[in-house]
Amino acid sequence: MTAVFIPSQLQSYCGGATRVEAAGATIDQVLRDLDRRFPGVRFRVVDEQDRIRRHMRVFVGKEAAVDVGMAVREGDEVLLFGALSGG
Amino acid sequence: MANSIQLLIGTRKGAWIYRSDGDRRAWAVEGPMHLGQIVSHFVLDPRDGATMLMAVKTGHLGPTILRSTDGGGRWSEARRPPAFPKSSDPATARAVDHTFWLEPGHAGEPGVWWAGASPPGLFVSEDGGVSWDSVAGFNEHPMYAKWCPPDSGTPDGPLLNQVAIDPREAAHMYVATSTGGVFESRDRAASWAPLNKGVEANFLPDPYPEYGQDAHFIAIHPTNPDRLYQQNHCGIYRLDRPSDTWERIGAAMPAEIGDIGFTVVPHPRDADTAWVFPMDGTTVWPRTSPGGRPAAYVTRDAGRSWERQDRGFPSEQGWFTVKRQAFCADGGAPLGLYLGTTGGELWMSDDEGAGWRSIGAHLPEIYSVVAAPPP
After folding, report:
1. pTM value?
2. Residue of A nearest to B130 (CA)
3. β-pair partners for B370
4. Which residue in A39, A40, A55 is closest to B60 by CB distance?
5. Residue B182 confidence (pLDDT)
6. Which of A54, B33, B169, B284 could form an S-S bond across to B15 if both were Cys, CB 3.0 to 4.6 Å?
């Protein structure tokens, strides 16, 4: 299982939790597992073409993901952030 | 309580409901709902009087549809929001940036909803807004790339900004776009054809093209569905079917006011009466009330003449902008009119536009105002 940091923008999906666990060997798999437990959360982070949305950031540890195919290894932490998006 | 109504207000920062007493004099405010969500449209299903849908996104998060069946008390999210099909070609892959318009389906099709999106896309739900499908008849049309060229359209992105359904025939539909103008379908969205004859596009080399216009708003008249009004980027028009040529009724507007605006509101019981709210479309397009003097204009003869209605509005230094979904009428007698400004003010008239008064201020930028019967 992978620890996933949930930003404030998505905590309403997770009962207010700031950190949850999800399973998967890639970011895509982790987000799909997250979506099974918290329906709707994936589509607000990733669009229908599987692209990470413009104002969302996904990290595996300290490494920024450019796509959802990035590998997630045992012990990694996945961090989701809302990036700057204007006023 | 014959005239009591509720106003569903969508703003750039959340939603509110204003509920009136029977005289439409006192208003109770409920909200904010979904504070911080960008609410493009907030609509009650007139067929069941209970289901509400709200099109939302945030600065960070992708778009979705929120749904309530208890008058706005509890909300749940669409199980499958509007989305384009997965594409194998990343260069042309489309993703919904935001759903802009929500249209309850024909009265004979309970549970059906239509949605317009940016980039231009048409979507349908057959289950009351829970799950949505891409409408291939428009979104995969062989002419799509020409009707909806990328990187064109509004500052918020190119739009399929409206869906309108003939109340006599569920299969007869119109859509308005910011990229190609108006399109018509007679087979329930399976096929489409442009419907733009007579409509100017003064920003193109051919000012009267088959398609390419910017249709800000269209209105089918409910008691005479052969009559359509359109507020276009380039003027106010009327179309009386079966003609397919729009007439520029904005030509009768005062020259110093012009006929540019975002929206047109027909009188629900009189097909010859409609209101517009002009904005300054000169020079660099301020899109504010001409001269800083806000006014509605009404025609009572199908656009042959227009009357200014400004009593109650600021007589100077009033720089209103009223967006596409932010001007509407109720069904009361006399008719009530309502508009919201990008400055977060809510105005109403309870005498068909003769006099106006402020009923709300200090809201975020108002995107939509929808009048609906009370719960």
Report:
1. 0.96
2. A40
3. B8
4. A55
5. 98
6. B33
